[in-house]
Design a protein that fits this description.
Layout lengths: L17 H7 L11 H37 L14 H11 L34 H15 L15 H11 L11 E6 L2 H22 L1 H8 L10 H4 L2 E7 L2 E3 L5 E3 L3 H18 L3 E2 L8 H7 L7 E9 L15 H4 L4
Antiparallel strand pairs: 1-2, 2-6, 3-4, 5-6
Helix pairs in contact: 5-9
Length: about 350
């Protein structure tokens, strides 16, 4: 069907009377017809304009009332990630997810004094520059040490000195952190009874994880590593290191000091700890047991604002320890130089 259509307007003409013919001669003209606007629209406006004006005013008034109500009511958070956060939601995001809280917050009623004074003195940086050859030599030596790092699930019960553990944690504490808040706590456990309780909590949750929560694909991906919900190494290793992140630090008056980038800061600290462990000739396993955090936090009597991030058994490898025969990606698959 064509998108065009036509409307035929019939023009009714009236033949002039004989008198008109005699007055105007033999020629006659039809009376001009009225347009649609003149015939329908103008009479409608003439008869109904009060109702139309009242309707427009009512719509305008309703619109103004709705805008006023929206401006005076809190706007619910939008699911759109690009939506601008309210100050409260921005602050919550900072605390719970470790992000930076880029949104401006005009409300200063809950501001706390910065952990560091703005006039903290800046001192000269002490640094000994190495030759290119020495830098390369050290880098190669460190790489050779780290390239031997593996995740171990079979530990010797041989003891590890407490002083060595303290040095490892002190090294991990050199990690950078947002606004130098150092949002981490390291709990080192060597007491046999406490390790038994930790294992019981972890295995109870891991059995549920492997059978219900993780799904068939995840469980299948782990089969080459011969790992199950049973975690014997938690009682075999002489130490267990639990790393807690601190999203904030509570103040006595109930306010909170935000720990910016707490997640990535604590993760970097954990990475430095792994390097320190390898450099000291010890072994560990990077473990992040699902759903165990609250129970372990309660067992270890840690405050509620601390959240478990990593669990690391620490010690020497068992004499019959084995690892999967896998390799790492070559440099050209992990490095892009421009």
């Amino acid at each position: 069907m064509s998108k065009w259509f036509y409307v035929e307007v019939l023009c009714v003409v009236e033949k002039p009377s004989p008198a008109a013919e005699s007055d105007e001669g033999m020629f006659w003209q039809p009376k001009p017809t009225m347009s649609l606007t003149e015939r329908y629209l103008l009479p409608l406006l003439r008869d109904s304009w009060p109702l139309l004006v009242a309707t427009c005013l009512a719509i305008l008034l309703l619109h103004l009332l709705l805008r006023r109500r929206q401006s005076s009511s809190p706007v619910p958070p939008r699911s759109d990630k690009k939506a601008r956060d309210t100050p409260d939601s921005a602050a919550k995001r900072v605390i719970e997810s470790g992000r930076t809280g880029e949104e401006d917050d005009e409300d200063t009623t809950d501001l706390v004094d910065p952990p560091l004074h703005e006039d903290v003195p800046h001192i000269p940086f002490e640094h000994t520059r190495l030759s290119e050859e020495e830098s390369q030599r050290r880098a190669e030596e460190f790489y050779q040490v780290m390239s031997q790092r593996r995740s171990l699930r079979y530990f010797s019960s041989d003891p590890v000195p407490r002083q060595l553990v303290e040095t490892l944690v002190r090294t991990a504490g050199t990690a950078p952190s947002g606004a130098h808040t150092e949002p981490w706590t390291f709990v080192a456990v060597s007491e046999a009874g406490l390790k038994e309780q930790i294992r019981a909590i972890v295995e109870a949750e891991e059995e549920i994880n492997y059978t219900k929560r993780m799904g068939k694909q995840w469980v299948a991906d782990l089969k080459p590593f011969k790992t199950t919900w049973q975690k014997e190494y938690l009682t075999e290793a002489p130490w267990i290191l639990l790393i807690f992140k601190q999203p904030y630090r509570p103040m006595p008056d109930g306010r909170k000091i935000n720990h910016y980038y707490h997640e990535i800061s604590t993760a970097i600290s954990g990475g430095i700890l792994l390097a320190a462990i390898q450099n000291a000739g010890l072994v560990t396993l990077t473990s992040t047991p699902l759903n165990c955090g609250p129970a372990l936090r309660a067992l270890l009597d840690r405050p509620t604002h601390e959240k478990l991030l990593l669990l690391l058994p620490l010690g020497y490898p068992a004499k019959d320890a084995t690892v999967p025969g896998i390799s790492r990606k070559p440099l050209d698959e992990i490095l892009v130089m421009m």
